[in-house]
Amino acid sequence: MEKPFTRKDLATGEFKIISKGRWGNADLYQFQRGQKIWVVKDFSPCPPFIRKTWGRFMVKREFQALQKLKGIKGIPAEPFLLDVYAVCYRFMPGTTLKETPSELIGDDYFFQFENIVQMMHQQNMVHLDIRNQRNILVTDDGEPALLDFQSSLNLENTPHALHKIMKDIDISGVYKNWSRKKPDSLDSGRRAHLESLNKKRFLWFLKGYPLGTKTDRRS
Ligand SMILES: Nc1ncnc2c1ncn2[C@@H]1O[C@H](COP(=O)(O)OP(=O)(O)O)[C@@H](O)[C@H]1O
Ligand SMILES: [Mg+2]
Q1: 75 within ligand 1 shell (Cβ under 6 A)
Q2: What is the three-state SS of the chain?
Q3: Does the Cβ of 92 fall within 6 Å of ligand 1?
Q4: Which ligand is located closest to the Cα atom of residue 134?
Q5: How far apart are CA 96 and CA 93, in angstroms?
Q6: Is the CB of 98 under 6 A from ligand 1?
Q7: CATH of range 94-212; options 3.20.20.70, 1.10.443.10, 3.40.50.10260, 1.10.510.10
Q8: CATH domain 8-90 topology
Q9: Tens digits of per-residue pLDDT, 26-80?
Q10: How do 80-83 and 27-33 pair as beta strands?
């Protein structure tokens, strides 16, 4: 299938920088083509060794995850590979959960967000970086979106014994953000679930960074 645009189109067109990566992180651009706005996540500016190993691996991982999750509303749509160093998908206008004041988050928001995560789990995918509020959007329509599938895993390639633990890591991220942003709407059942997950030793390492798969550029 023909790509919506090529690297040459990007180089000769106008794009906005969303963020500049350092070391192992990609540069992110916003690029308009006709009516559609795209995000380009590009590792090509990284040092050659990083680009050719880590960068290629991350691009492939994110592309495969988005491909598998196609059709779920709230997950970046129409993914394609610009080349082996960059993955592209549709831009969703909004603000990150981190930047969004609680008053601007609707009462349905976290119920819908939980639903996105459950639909992802039904496709046998786990995200593993949901605690990071920069990976979650409040769209201009007030709806949730989940971004950044660089740390995601396909459970079909993971030992069965780890599936529940990994899904629990995601769920604890959902409830953690829910309790930070909208504590009043977190019912006692979900709160008790979060507390029981927090007591599990295997989740303690989340106070650092999940599975050592990624370095956070900004915090
Ligand atoms: N599809 C998208 N729509 C809108 N904004 C996006 C989209 N993808 C990424 N962003 C913005 O770019 C930021 C970084 O994206 P992310 O995929 O988390 O990359 P990284 O963590 O490697 O910098 C997000 O916090 C968000 O602000
Ligand atoms: Mg991120």
Answers
A1: no
A2: CCCCCCHHHHHHCCEEEEECCCCCCCEEEEEEECCEEEEEEECCCCCHHHHHHHHHHHHHHHHHHHHHCCCCCCCCCCCEEEECCEEEEECCCEEECCCCCHHHCCCCHHHHHHHHHHHHHHCCEECCCCCCHHHEEEECCCCEEECCCCCCEEHHHCCHHHHHHHHHHHHHHHHHHHHHHCHHHCCHHHHHHHHHHHHCHHHHHHHCCHHHCCCCCCC
A3: yes
A4: 1
A5: 10
A6: no
A7: 1.10.510.10
A8: Phosphorylase Kinase; domain 1 (3.30.200)
A9: 999 999 999 999 999 999 999 999 999 999 999 999 999 999 999 999 999 999 9
A10: unpaired
Tens digits of residue pLDDT in 107-149: 999 999 999 999 999 999 999 999 999 999 999 999 999 999 9
Is the shortest distance between the CB of 89 and ligand 1 below 6 Å? yes
Contact criterion met (CB below 8 Å) for 119 and 129 = no
Distance CA 89, CA 87 (A): 7
200 C-alpha vs ligand 2 centroid, how far in Å?
Answer: 25
Q: Name the pTM for this structure.
A: 0.93
Distance CA 147, CA 130 (A): 9
